[in-house]
TrEMBL record, chain A:
Annotated family: Belongs to the CDC50/LEM3 family.
Entry protein name: ALA-interacting subunit
Protein's cellular compartments: Membrane
Taxonomic superkingdom: Eukaryota
PANTHER family for this protein: ALA-INTERACTING SUBUNIT, CELL CYCLE CONTROL PROTEIN 50
Short name of one Pfam family: CDC50
Extent of Low complexity compositional bias: 1-15
Organism: Rehmannia glutinosa (Chinese foxglove)
Keyword Transit peptide: no
Keywords, alphabetical: Membrane, Transmembrane, Transmembrane helix
Keyword Protein transport: no
InterPro entries documented for this protein: CDC50/LEM3_fam
Chain segments carrying region Disordered: 1-21
TM regions (residue ranges): 37-59, 305-326
From TrEMBL, chain B:
Biased composition (Basic and acidic residues): 418-427
Compartment annotation: Membrane
EC number(s) on file: 7.6.2.1
Residue ranges, annotated region (Disordered): 418-440
Keywords in alphabetical order: ATP-binding, Magnesium, Membrane, Metal-binding, Nucleotide-binding, Translocase, Transmembrane, Transmembrane helix
NCBIfam families linked to this entry: ATPase-Plipid, ATPase_P-type
Protein name: Phospholipid-transporting ATPase
Length: 329, 1136
């Protein structure tokens, strides 16, 4: 080390740039920051405000749900001949094309139902979300007649026996639900509007208006409904609804809308064509009519959960306050 | 520098690595092995591409591939930037140097074309292209000056001497007939040794380091040199030294591997459960030839769904499951951690509070692997010289001919005085104090660096009046002559400054100068000084011929001073060589011995000065012998030289002793106190004498008055008796027994004082350490040492330093940090979990082999308590959170699959899934890892007890990790079951439409994104705009992504087409459901944390509260209770 007072330092050192890190709030980790801490005061405030927000929401959802009138009727177990008690007989009945599958059900409307009243069919234990099932479709084929042969994913319902492509191909379309319902009140038919039951985007962007069903349900094993070959796919709304697969093995799908009000104590007769085979896999079929409010159909769960969470928050807020009073730090 | 190169090569494998693994199962077998993360990353794209071609995969190819490519691309870019330095290689290879060619001209040639034996000419300020043998220089006498900053960090110039025979070759054309042969050692890494012989004109000439110009050093103050290439490329000393730094991984990372094992088992378990049930449900699809779930066409199924081969289908499903639940193993965690750590090191490097103005050195993290380890240090093993002290020496005292000179008071003396209750110096040892006391004595007001000697008896030429004036003259002559310093004369003022290899040397030369023996010129063969003639009082110029300069120890000087000029004055300085002194001055020896003892007690470094006068005849005969020894190329050359040196080192006349003070660095005592408060144990391992070490221990508050000392030493009469008899075995045996007894006694002392909390200090010397480190004693030694507050090992060798470090590391299993500055600390630095080098005066070896370098010991406080604590907290939080978020997400997939007949159907659109780790949740974690602070730097330093969280590894303990995982599972359950139950069956909009697969995916995913991001917001304590931006930005980006992705053609967006704009957004139910799920998922954590901070707070909670309430309120009682509990738990654990 050199001694003395700097003047004797070698010249090369003078030009050296200082390696001192430059100051910035970022590199010195001194950015302005807020540092919230869970103090008892803050916790109690949070919990109480949660309660204040959640309980009213819960109450209003429950009341909205109360305003919904919903009728559910399971018919798969009654719409079969009473003598076919065992499983195989049921399957035999449903698979036999010759048997009469018409079935009548009578409902009494418990409360006034304002239109629109939505008609759903509900299937239980039907795995529309099975991976094999979900994948078995061709979006390209559904949209454009040019992609008719894009059926790679549709096996085993891709081509008919003459190697002609099936439109719409795949297991989803093949297993299209084919029960039908006819509503009547005091022998007056109630019209069911089946327009606009599918999502608009599906109709306009996923299912082509120039794609027509071809070679559909022509092979040995018939799955579900047949399609009218003169109507383009974009107008086959039942198909579009069906092909929007359900998330869970128990699901409802929109069948149509009743555009008139139903009065309390109205007697409604429903003529059901019980065609769809749910007996093989122990599925259930239900027919549902329901009105809606702002939260949709009848939904007690949401409101109750809101109440529960709000109540829990309130409980802990109080518990906390008491603890804080009894045992302050 | 060389280390960086090694790293670079390692990294470059990453982006030039092309491999193709056949099966993805191989990939998983890599887990837990070294470098697992990197291998996985470079393999993944290949694997996924392969797998995507198979129908096994639950996703489409591109949705996996693209995000991976983004991640890999980012990693590659990072590595490429880090590798940018390799460009230097190319530059270096293409640099040009003048080489002598066949046409007898010097031509420019590229460095890479240099061959061994080439003659090169190097100009001023150029680097040497290879290891060269110096032939001649622009100076007559063939010397040249070399700067070796690149090699050892020493800034002083070093002189190299050409051999006399070749030093006359000054012209380019004088080499026409030059032919010689060099025989020398094989390439090796020793920078400080070179052995060889030059055969020239039929004569042999010994070669030494003096003739070797090492590559990467620079020619200075010399117009040009000629040299012969001896070693090139990888044979050069500098490249031989370029070893990879030992690869160290932090404890957290090693623990993370274990967590990965846990998660991997979980992954296998979950996949197995899935495939088991899938197998059963698939088998049932055809019952007795009848189709059950006819809509799946089980009669026409491929092998993956075939009821006839359900076992095989289940097996394939297992593979699918592994891919589907791959989210449980956060691959991107590794990348995120890398990124975070690099950013953390930038913060360390850029910290202004760790920048040392005087040497212009900021802190430097040489590896980013160990940031969080800094927060867990349990034991610090520190060197003394240059680490605790400045290693800039002040000449303070001397003893000449039995008279002690020097009236200054050292820091240690002041500390001792303070200890004895003398309050005359008020506030302990502060720098101002030192300064003041220095000024008191200096009088003139001008302080000279390296010189703090005050004694009117010999200053200002007064020494001539002292009784032993001739001795004093000889004494200072030795100091002025026996060294390797280089003078630099300032032409204007005539002042002389010195460049010396060691600070001690500089202190001696400066002292000699101040007392009138001004060394001002050095040539290869002579040294010149101005000297005060003690008779006339005038300044006389004197030139002495240096005959042999073989080592620091011995220098033979032909003294031409009258009278009589033919005498050779053989001068030398020795450290401890009393046995070599001549017999006839025993009385002064005894006095000097006593002085030396007192000096050491005062914490001074002492050196004995002695000389011997020879007649020329005697000298010549010895010289011949010595030169033959030097030229011999045998293996026993060193022994021969030693023998020759021995012959001359006899019958020395004792002149006196010097005492040089190595001042404590600024802030060391305060820093040590802080670190001790933080619960870190500090061991000082030094080569000093025991008295010095103890006194330094007091000076830097490592030992305190209230401490009890346990001293383990072999300095007993019994053992020295045995030693005299020379029976080595008996000595060893007796020593071992003695050490065993001493350790036992120490333990007894400890246990007897248990309960009254008297801290103990253990002091052990090097000899005892040899025995204490033996197999059968090390455990009890460690046990004893662990129970002492501080440990001082003195008189220890570099090897012992490393051994002690290993003992502590292995024995306690705790994190050790070694800090040192010299080459003798390298072993220790590499052995410890973390090596911290002080980039100080002693060169760069320690800094080169360390993981972090700082300029001053006191910066350690900030490095550990602030950066270490933060990094530890950040990384452990980050890892826990990462597992949480991936489990929370991964398990929603599992619950969904359970509701989809375990068919391996993911609940979400492929692209949502692949972006989960890349866009929607990754940036907040990185922000957490880079920016989070539980308390500010100031409070970290003010409350060192906060550091306990790291030592006891509270933030990354198994309960905490498993707690976070459990939280993830709970969140996933709340997300899935609340969502599905609230949407089951009924319409979710006024227009009667129901929730389908696409909408449920969006709903659950929205909840997941909200939940994990809000969880982040809940668990961090530090919000800058960056955190706000990343957390809320990630959530906002999810919606933006949904809108953008949903606007693409349905053939691209598939299930996401218009799903947000058309379907979800207009539904109040969608928003209410999100709010409900998110709040419910966060509520358990919120309540848990609230109770915890209130009724069982962690240390940082207490400090945060204290900050919030008011600085006056003392929560220290609670804290100390907390820490006490921690220690108890700890000791319990260790007993188990």
């Amino acid at each position: 080390m050199s001694s003395g007072d700097g003047s004797s330092e070698p010249s090369s050192k003078i030009s050296k740039i200082s390696k001192k890190p430059r100051y910035s709030r970022f590199t010195q980790q001194e950015l302005p920051a807020c540092k919230p801490i869970l103090t008892p005061g803050l916790v109690i405030t949070i919990l109480i405000s949660l309660a204040i927000i959640f309980i009213p929401i819960g109450l209003s959802s429950i009341s909205a749900s109360e305003n919904v009138v919903e009728l559910v009727d399971r018919y798969d177990d009654v719409c079969i001949p009473s003598n076919s008690s065992n499983h195989d007989e049921k399957i035999g009945f449903i698979q036999d094309a010759a048997t009469n599958k018409t079935c009548f059900r009578t409902w009494i409307v418990p409360k006034k139902m304002n239109h629109p009243i939505f008609v759903y069919y509900q299937l239980d234990n039907f795995y529309q979300n099975h991976r094999r099932y979900v994948k078995s479709r061709s979006d390209h084929q559904l949209w454009s007649p040019k992609s008719e042969r894009a059926t790679k994913l549709c096996e085993p319902e891709a081509q008919n026996d003459d190697d002609k492509p099936i439109v719409p191909c795949g297991l989803i379309a093949w297993s299209l639900f084919n029960d039908t319902y006819r509503f009547s009140r005091n022998d007056d038919a109630i019209e069911i509007n089946k327009k606009d039951i599918a999502w608009g985007s599906d109709r306009t962007k996923k299912f082509g208006s120039d794609v027509y069903p071809k070679n559909f349900q022509t092979r040995g094993l018939i799955g579900g409904a047949k399609l009218n070959e003169s109507i383009p796919l974009s107008q086959q709304e039942d198909l579009i609804v069906w092909m929007r697969t359900a998330a869970l093995p128990s699901f409802r799908k929109l069948y149509g809308r009743i555009e008139t009000d139903l009065e309390a104590n109205d007697k409604i007769t429903i003529e059901i064509q019980n065609n769809y085979n749910t007996y093989s896999f122990n599925g259930r079929k239900k027919l549902v009519i329901s009105t809606t409010t702002w939260i949709g159909g009848k939904n007690d769960f949401l409101g109750r959960m809101y109440m529960t969470v709000g109540g829990t928050s309130l409980f802990f807020a109080i518990a906390f306050s008491i603890l804080f009073v009894i045992k302050p730090r | 520098m060389s280390g960086r190169r090694g790293r670079g090569i390692h990294f470059s494998r990453l982006y030039s690595f092309s491999c193709f693994r056949g099966s993805f199962r191989d990939e998983h077998s890599q887990i837990g092995q070294k470098g697992y993360s990197r291998v996985v990353y470079c393999n993944d794209p290949d694997n996924s591409e392969q797998l995507m071609l198979s129908p096994l995969a639950p996703y489409t190819a591109s949705s996996i591939l693209w995000p991976l490519l983004v991640v890999i691309g980012a990693t590659m870019a990072k590595e490429a930037v880090e590798d940018w330095r390799r460009k230097q290689d190319v530059e270096a290879n293409n640099r040009k140097v003048k080489v002598y060619d066949r046409n007898h001209n010097f031509q420019h040639t590229r460095w890479k074309k240099l061959r061994v034996g080439d003659l090169v000419k190097v100009y001023k300020d150029e680097y040497f292209p290879a290891d060269l043998l110096l032939l001649s220089s622009s100076y007559e006498d063939g010397i040249c000056y070399v700067e070796t900053t690149n090699l050892d960090g020493e800034t002083n110039l070093k002189v190299k001497h050409a051999l006399d025979v070749t030093s006359s070759l000054h012209e380019d054309n004088s080499f026409q007939h030059f032919k010689a042969i060099i025989k020398c050692e094989d390439p090796n890494e020793d920078l400080y040794a070179f052995v060889g012989t030059l055969y020239y004109d039929g004569q042999q000439y010994p070669l030494s380091l003096q003739q070797l110009l090492v590559r990467d050093s620079k020619l200075r103050n010399t117009e040009f040199v000629y040299g012969v290439v001896v070693f090139t490329g990888h044979d050069t000393k500098v490249m031989q030294n370029a070893t990879d730094p030992p690869s160290k991984r932090s404890k957290i990372e090693r623990k993370m591997d274990k967590i990965i094992y846990v998660l991997f088992s979980l992954l296998i378990l979950v996949s197995f459960i899935g495939s088991f049930f899938f197998g059963i449900s698939t088998k049932k699809d055809i019952d007795d030839g009848k189709l059950k779930r006819w809509y799946l066409r089980p009669d026409a199924a491929t092998v993956f769904y075939d009821p006839q081969r359900s076992a095989l289908a289940a097996f394939f499903h297992f593979l699918t499951g592994l891919m589907l639940y791959g989210y449980l193993i956060p691959i991107s965690l590794y990348v995120s951690i890398e990124v975070v750590k690099v950013l953390q090191t930038i913060f360390i490097n850029r910290d202004q509070d760790m920048y040392y103005e005087e040497t212009d050195k900021p802190a430097h993290a040489r590896t980013s692997n160990l940031n969080e380890e800094l927060g867990q240090v349990d034991t610090i093993l520190s060197d003394k010289t240059g680490t605790l002290t400045c290693n800039s020496m002040d000449f303070v005292k001397c003893s000449i001919a039995g008279v002690a000179y020097g009236r200054g008071m050292t820091e240690v003396e002041r500390a001792l005085a303070k200890r004895k209750g003398d309050t005359h110096h008020d506030s302990g040892i502060t720098s101002s104090n030192i300064q003041r006391s220095g000024d008191d004595f200096a009088g003139s007001g001008k302080s000279i660096k390296g010189f703090n000697f005050h004694d009117e008896r010999i200053m200002n030429g007064q020494w001539v009046n002292e009784p032993h004036a001739d001795m004093i003259q000889k004494f200072f002559r030795v100091l002025a002559l026996c060294h390797t310093a280089i003078p630099e004369v300032n032409q204007e003022t005539g002042e002389v400054a010195y460049e010396a290899e060691s600070p001690d040397e500089a202190a001696f030369v400066i002292a000699a100068r101040e007392l009138g023996f001004e060394f001002f010129e050095r040539t290869q063969t002579s040294i010149s000084l101005h000297e005060l003639d003690h008779k006339s009082g005038r300044k006389i110029d004197r030139t002495c011929h240096m005959l042999v300069a073989l080592s620091l120890r011995i220098q033979a000087i032909l003294d031409t001073f009258p009278p009589p000029p033919e005498n050779v004055l053989f001068l030398l300085r020795v450290s401890v060589m009393f046995e070599r002194l001549s017999e006839d001055a025993q009385d002064s020896v005894a006095i000097t011995m006593d002085h030396i003892k007192r000096y050491s007690e005062a914490g001074l470094r002492t050196l004995v000065v002695a000389c011997r006068e020879l007649s020329e005849l005697e000298y010549r005969s010895w010289e011949e012998e010595f030169l033959t020894a030097q030229t011999s190329l045998n293996a026993d050359r060193d022994a021969l030289i030693e023998a020759a040196a021995d012959k001359i080192e006899r019958d020395l006349i004792l002149l006196g002793a010097t005492a040089v003070e190595d001042k404590l660095q600024k802030g060391v005592p305060e820093c040590i106190e802080k670190l001790e408060n933080a619960g870190i144990k500090i061991w000082v391992i030094t080569g000093d004498k025991m008295e010095t070490a103890i006194n330094i221990g007091y000076a830097c508050s490592l030992l305190r008055e209230d401490m009890k000392q346990i001293v383990i030493t072999l300095d007993s009469a019994e053992i020295s008796d045995l030693e005299k008899k020379g029976d080595k075995e008996a000595v060893a045996k007796a020593s071992s027994v003695s050490i065993t007894n001493q350790i036992r006694e120490g333990k007894l002392q400890l246990s007897s004082s248990e309960g009254n909390s008297i801290p103990f200090g253990l002091i052990i010397d090097g000899k005892s350490l040899t025995f204490a480190l033996s197999k059968n004693l090390e455990d009890s030694f460690l046990d004893l040492a662990n129970n002492c507050a501080s440990v001082i090992c003195c008189r220890s060798t570099p090897k012992q330093k490393a051994l002690v470090t290993r003992l502590v590391k292995k024995g306690t299993g705790r994190t050790t940090l070694a800090i040192g500055d010299g080459a003798n600390d390298v072993g220790m630095l590499q052995e410890a979990d973390i090596g911290v080098g002080i980039s100080g005066v002693e060169g760069m070896q320690a800094a080169m082999s360390s993981d972090f370098t700082i300029a001053q010991f006191r910066f350690l406080e900030r490095l550990l308590l602030v950066h270490g604590h933060w990094c530890y907290r950040r990384i452990s939080m980050m890892i826990c959170y990462f597992f949480y978020k991936n489990i929370a997400f991964g398990f929603t997939l599992f619950w969904f699959e359970a509701h989809a007949s375990f068919s391996g159907q993911p609940a979400y659109n492929d692209w949502y899934m692949s972006f989960y780790n890349v866009f929607f949740t990754s940036l907040p974690v990185i922000a957490l890892g880079v920016f989070d602070q539980d308390v500010s730097a100031r409070l970290c330093l003010k409350n060192p007890e906060l550091y306990q969280e790291g030592i006891h590894n509270i933030l990354f303990s198994w309960p905490r990790i498993l707690g976070w995982m459990l939280n993830g599972i709970i969140s996933s359950m709340i997300i899935f079951f609340f969502t599905t139950n609230s949407v089951l069956h009924q319409a979710f909009r006024r227009d009667g439409r129901v929730v389908d697969f696409e909408v449920l995916g969006v709903m659950m995913y929205t909840c997941a994104v909200w939940t994990v991001n809000c969880q982040m917001a809940l668990s961090i304590n530090y919000f800058t705009w960056i955190q706000h931006f990343f957390i809320w930005g990630s959530i906002a980006f999810w919606y933006a992504f949904l809108v953008m992705y949903g606007a693409m053609s349905p053939r691209i967006s598939t299930t996401a087409y218009q799903v947000f704009v058309e379907t979800c957004a207009p539904s109040p139910f969608f928003w209410l459901e999100t709010l409900l799920v998110v709040v419910s998922a966060l509520l358990p954590y919120l309540l848990y944390r609230s109770f915890q901070t209130e009724f069982n707070p962690m240390i940082h909670d207490v400090i945060q509260r204290r900050r919030l309430e008011s600085p006056e309120v003392e929560a220290s009682k609670e804290l100390s209770g907390k820490i006490g509990k921690l220690r108890e738990e700890d000791s319990l654990l260790s007993k188990l």
